[in-house]
Amino acid sequence: MSMKRFFTSAVAMAAVVAAVPVARPLEKREPVTTITLTSASTYTATIAPATPVTPTGTATYPGTTAPVPDSPKPPKNGKPDGSCSSTGTCGSGSGGSSSGSKLPGVAYAPYRGDHQCKSKDEIQHDITQLAADFSVLRIYGTDCDQVANVYSCAKGSGLKLFLGIWNIDDVQTEAKTIISAIDDWDVVDTISVGNELVNNGAASPAKVIAAVKQAREILRAAGYQGPVVTVDTFIAANANPELCN
C-alpha cells in the first residue's frame, strides 16, 4: 500500500470514529418531591423523577432550604380579624394595610340586586363589615331612607359619613332630609352636591356651583360646618377650575 493511500484511509477512519457518539453515563436524579404543610399534618407526594439532562459543562448546585411557614395563629378571644362586637366596636379587618390601619373610604349603595331598597337590618350587616376596614363611607343620595338608616347603623362603629345630595334641581328637599336624619354632625365628614354632572354633560359648571352654594347655606343654618362640595372627574375639574373654588 502506497503512503498516499494509507494516509487517505487513516483520515477516513478518523472521520468515522469521530462521528460515532460516545456514550456517557447519565447522572442519577432523585424524584421531585412536593411538601404541603397544614396546621394539622404534613403530606408528602412524589410527583415524578426529573428528566435527566446531559450536562454541557461543570455546574454547581448551591444548597438551599425552603422556608417553612408558621402555623396559622388562632384569633384572639375566639373572634376572627375584622369581627365586630355586639356594642359595635370593630377590630382591624383583613382588607386593611399591613400596619393594621384602615383604608380611607368606600362608596356604598343601599340597594339589593333587584334595585329595591335594603332593609335597615341588611344595611346594619353591611356596615358592620365595612367598618372593620374603612374610615369613611360614602352614600350618594337620600332615597330609600338611606341617610337615616346608614347614620343610625354607623354611629358607634367609628365610620365617618360622606353624604350626598343627588338631585341638584331639588337641593332644598334633599338637604332637609339630611338635616332631619342627623343629630350629631361630628359623624359627617363631607356632603356632596351632584356627582360628575359636568363630566356627563348633565349640568353646566355654573348650575352645579349655584346648587353647592344653596346647599351650603341651608346646611350651615342647621349647624353643619364641614365641607360642602361637588364631585366630578379630573378632566371636568381641570377644564372648569371654578368647580374647585
UniProtKB/TrEMBL annotation:
Biased composition of type Low complexity is found at 49-67
Query: Where does the record place it?
Result: Cell envelope
| The protein's name in its UniProt record | Uncharacterized protein
Q: What is the lineage of its organism?
A: Eukaryota, Fungi, Dikarya, Ascomycota, Pezizomycotina
- So which domain of life are we looking at? Eukaryota
Q: SUPFAM superfamilies annotated for this entry?
A: (Trans)glycosidases
Q: What GO annotations for molecular function exist for this entry?
A: glucan endo-1,3-beta-D-glucosidase activity
Q: Where is this region: Disordered?
A: 49-101
Gene3D superfamilies, A to Z = Glycosidases (3.20.20.80)
> What keywords sit in the KW lines?
Hydrolase, Signal
Signal peptide region: 1-19
